Amino acid sequence: MACFDNILLCTDSYKVTHHFQYPEGTTQVYSYFESRGGKFPTVTFFGLQYILKKWLVGKVVSEEKIQEAKELYKLHFASDIFNEDGWRYILKKHNGLIPLRIKAVPEGSVVPVKNVLFTVENTDPNVPWLTNWFETLLVQIWYPTTVATNSRAMKTIIAKYLSETADSMGGLPFKLHDFGFRGTSSVESAGIGGAAHLVNFVGTDTVASLVMARHYYGCEMAGFSIPAAEHSTITTWGKNHEKEAFANMLHKFPKGLVAVVSDSFDIFNACENVWGKELKDMVEKRGQSESTLVIRPDSGDPPEIVVKVLNILEKCFGSTINSKGYKMLPPYLRVIQGDGISYETLQGILDKVKENNWSSDNLVFGCGGSLLQKVHRDTQKFAFKCSYCVINGVGKDVFKAPITDPGKNSKKGKLTLELEDGTYVTRQGGTGNPEKDLLVPVFENGILLKEYTLDEIRKRAEVDEAK
């Protein structure tokens, strides 16, 4: 939105006053970003490139933006507290480019919590206050990183059950489909979070994520979908014409994958009598062209419903036993469960499916609010803190250590992220080896120094299926 394109207005109010607060003679402020812990033991780093390209690359300070900020903050604070001289200095000295240096772990990296993920420092000694001005924007990487982390955790669960019950892992990238667009707080959130999910999977109905991946991560087509029914396209036919509604889907989409929501009235009757008897010949004939009908239950207790649907479909269409000893529906028939899916529920469903001798390869899952919306900054306890400064030419390690919460202790000094015996380690206080530092320069003085494609990121974040 045009009203939000001014970075001088994209910060927390109290930061507008911070240029008055640093010690006299401060010329550098160096800060870092980390996950201090949380739900998952590792985080999948993603989204910084989007923030940099959208907000910081190129000339982002102008006379018009300075005037707009000056007027707004005068009303907001009822005083002339805004650092007009500082921003005007950036405009004149740096031609509106932002004099910061940012180093970050490569996107897609899976890093244990309590490690540095990126660092920020000013490159001009006259604007030390600038580093933490951008905390507000830069910390918003918590969202795509948390979504990517949650999505990858679900991928790990699905991979485990596929490795135990399926002949092939080939379908894994399609096993969790993004249904979350309507449940997000904005189109931008859907794009950012949806793109984060596409780090791990290639199934999505969140079109905004495709735009995001194309525009910011160089991926022409990041995700795929299939024709599918919603309740309105079934219920408008009326309860007594569900057969006709289902048949219409098979007629209109005679080849390929098609998904049909089947619980509008009675999911069990739909599977046993409508699909399993009245339309059985159509379903089987369609399968002769290597096409697949995906039946979607959308209500009830997922573990119980999924197994019952599989059993009914087996009764009507038969099943085979795969090389792992688990049952498979005919290749022209599959099930998608898109209701009640989350990291917390996924294992229970797959456990139940396995207990009943079904392969998880019969299933695809859809996930909405639990994927893109039911997360927050404290899911992984993300924080951005100052760890080093220069005052009157003397470097100084900076930290916080509140006696009321040791979990909020911060790191000290300049930081490096290194690998030691295959484990990520953050070196503090300038003790690290710069040659071993995994933090890559990605931004300096308005210029993007490193750009990642989604394909690169996906490879970095791949789940080790052997585990």
UniProtKB/TrEMBL annotation:
Record-listed beta-nicotinamide D-ribonucleotide binding positions: 205, 296-298, 338-339, 369, 377
Pathway(s) this gene product operates in, as recorded in its UniProt entry: Cofactor biosynthesis; NAD(+) biosynthesis; nicotinamide D-ribonucleotide from 5-phospho-alpha-D-ribose 1-diphosphate and nicotinamide: step 1/1
Lineage: superkingdom: Eukaryota
Record domain Nicotinate/nicotinamide phosphoribosyltransferase: where: 174-414
Annotated diphosphate binding sites: 182, 231, 296
Residue ranges of domain Nicotinamide phosphoribosyltransferase N-terminal in the record: 6-102
Family: Belongs to the NAPRTase family.
Designated name of the protein: Nicotinamide phosphoribosyltransferase
